[in-house]
Amino acid sequence: MTSTADEFTKLNISGDWASTAPNLQKNLSVLSIEQVELAKMLLEMGQTHLFQHWSEPDDDDEKRAFFDQTAKLNSSYPGGLSAYINTARELLADSKTGKNPYDGFSPSVPSGEVLTYGDDTFVQFEEAGIKEARKAAFVLVAGGLGERLGYNGIKVALPRETTTGTCFLQHYIESILALQEASCSLAGGDCQAEIPLAIMTSDDTHLRTLELLEKNSFFGMKPTQVKLLKQEKVACLDDNEAHLALDPLNKYKIQTKPHGHGDVHSLLYSSGLLKVWHDAGLRWVLFFQDTNGLLFKAIPAALGVSATKQYHVNSLAVPRKAKEAIGGITKLTHKDGRTMVINVEYNQLDPLLRASGYPDGDVNSETGYSPFPGNINQLIFEIGPYLEELTKTGGAIKEFVNPKYKDATKTAFKSSTRLECMMQDYPKTLPPSARVGFTVMDAWLAYAPVKNNPEDAAKVPKGNPYHSATSGEMAIYRSHSLILRKAGVKVDDPVIQVFNGQEVEVWSRVVWKPKWALTFSEVKSKVSGNCSISQRSTMAIKGSNIALEDLSLDGALIVEAVDGAEVKVGGSVQNKGWSIENVDYKDTSIPEEIRIRGFRFNKVEQLERTYTEPGKYSLTP
């Protein structure tokens, strides 16, 4: 055993050690050498206040637990706690003086692809994307609970729509498996590709995500295809000097908060997963968020754009109205010649444009939309350049700090703050040679996030998107109805109804499993003759070889078939169908996942057929 005095000599702790943290010095005998190292780092970083409340040696377990926590905070942040505190001081100083992060930059519209669903170019990009899919890996950022939605579970467990009750995670996995199969059949030969899925979780969601997967046999994926990466929290900051905040309930614990989804980059790097994918010959990583039920409609074409244009970074985007509360993808050019293509938050875009010679700021062009497309946080990176960049940065992303000040002097905070980072800020560190572009698709096809609770959604100004469970489900029916229309099906116009105080278009309730059709060409190949669907109808297609031929549907139709069963559905299907009933979101007798929508289906009558054996079948009532 070396004595504490020897430890000090080794650590070069100066003579004024005792005067800065006498309570810590009294307790050194209970600490290991590693813990004394951490203590020295904290003192050097001006964090003596952490030890002011320490008692005489007795609460030894609590003190060791403090250093266990410190060690975790130190190891989970690129560069350690000292790097975190130094960055915090810089960013807090900039925040106090009101420094503009875009000083010296002028904005312009970047180059990218604007696609029109169903035209020849779109179809070509979709086919190119399906070809590439077997060389892709998917990353789902799922650290959040549904509390903001009025739902107590994890968000990925919420039903994407209530016609089939399929949850978001099941839909995502089934979409990836359908991509895998479609890509392999295009590749021909003995294609054994398994598309990997990584899910970034948090303390809040990790066990529940694992439980959801295990309980449902990973929704058809091999368990080895799925990797969970848990994100750690970061230390809170009490003031402009970046003093670490103590937990109000425990003086031996540093208060922590989430760091933001930008952590996904450092996790992919530090876990070694990115290198494994790269070495296995994969070419693309696709990042997506937890509750956008339409995003896989956009993925084949967007991946096709990445491959064709050889983009290192491709941001999926939707047309955005000027001043709409969604970030705009912008090219920034600095006075010194540096350029970058990044997401600029909507509240920063307008002042930036006004300061750069655009007197009207963020305004719509002749298209009726802003020339700066709306970022939907759906990103496609080419793995080679991505891994190369992360090897330089360790996965660290440019951070920001957003303290809530007590008053205009900006000297004190209302409550502790922390550094945050966003995954879409990755391009900020890229060299100008990086090929960074975007792909715009219509919002009806690609974007219907579920993030607002009924009360907040009802307050949204008329004409702006609600982004609620109500609008998210209705958007799926609209998307499927519009796709079928483009494929030649006569689909009735929607009616307007109000649920949970939100006025929405109610289209025919049409849903299909991803394996039925991933691309527009596939939908067209499975629909023929004169097909029509009335507005009050419901149709669920659950199988890959189900064809609609001269079908006239007025009611509810559910068709399920195993992979080897080929089913032709036609003729006139008429029944009482499923009606929609209003539900009050305050009615606690109804399950949360239903009442946050404001409606439920009353399944009065339907035609339902399930084909469990391979063979050829015809369903004509």
From TrEMBL:
Which InterPro entries does the record match to this protein? Answer: Nucleotide-diphossugar_trans, UDP-sugar_pyrophosphorylase, UDPGP_fam
Q: Name one GO molecular function term.
A: UDP-N-acetylglucosamine diphosphorylase activity
Highest taxon of source: Eukaryota
Sorted alphabetically, the Gene Ontology BP terms of this entry are: UDP-N-acetylglucosamine biosynthetic process
- Give the enzyme's EC designation: 2.7.7.64
What's its catalytic activity? Answer: a monosaccharide 1-phosphate + UTP + H(+) = a UDP-monosaccharide + diphosphate
Question: What cofactors does the UniProt entry give for this protein?
Answer: Mn(2+); Mg(2+)
Q: Which keywords annotate this record?
A: Nucleotidyltransferase, Transferase
Family annotation (CDD domains):
UGGPase (cd06424)
Give the UniProt family note: Belongs to the USP family.
Could you tell me which PANTHER family the record lists for this protein? Answer: UDP- GLUCOSE PYROPHOSPHORYLASE, UDP-SUGAR PYROPHOSPHORYLASE
For this entry, the protein name equals: UTP-monosaccharide-1-phosphate uridylyltransferase
- Lineage summary: Eukaryota, Viridiplantae, Streptophyta, Embryophyta, Tracheophyta
